[in-house]
Amino acid sequence: MKITSTFTPLNGGTAEVLKRIDTGARWGLEAQGRVVWRAWKRELQLRKGGFKTGAFATGVAQNKITLGPVQTLGRIGDYSVQVGTSVLYHLFWELGHMNLFTGKYERVETLRPALEDTRDEQRAAFVRQFRRAVGA
What we know:
It is a single chain. By secondary structure, this protein is mainly alpha-helical. The protein has one domain (14-131). The chain contains five helices and six strands. It has helices at 13-46, 60-63, 88-95, 111-117, 119-134; strands at 65-67, 71-72, 79-80, 83-85, 97-98, 105-106. Strand 2 (71-72) and strand 3 (79-80) form a beta hairpin. The longest helix is centred in the first third of the chain and has 34 residues, at 13-46. The radius of gyration is 22 Å and the shape is rod-shaped.
């Protein structure tokens, strides 16, 4: 009597599991970036759309905050997402500068607080999307 058996991989096999993990990493990173993007915009809203008094606020600073696509850096699971702006004066306020109008060194950080204050929220967003992709 000859016994034959066939192997059936669980959950689609190793290739499917790796694909889901990879998708989870991409989705999670995008969700994490979205949290930072929203928090940075909130930081500017607290300043009436500007950096100091809000007197010169036109909404440009807030509307120029962008969330880029998830980019592959090299091997599988190696990704990056950029939250940034095309407005140069964001950099001057974030790092500090000599203000021509007041004659003082001035600095108003908006990005750093957005990053630091939302660490737990970023982590939770990543985990939610990762679990969704993996099917846990």
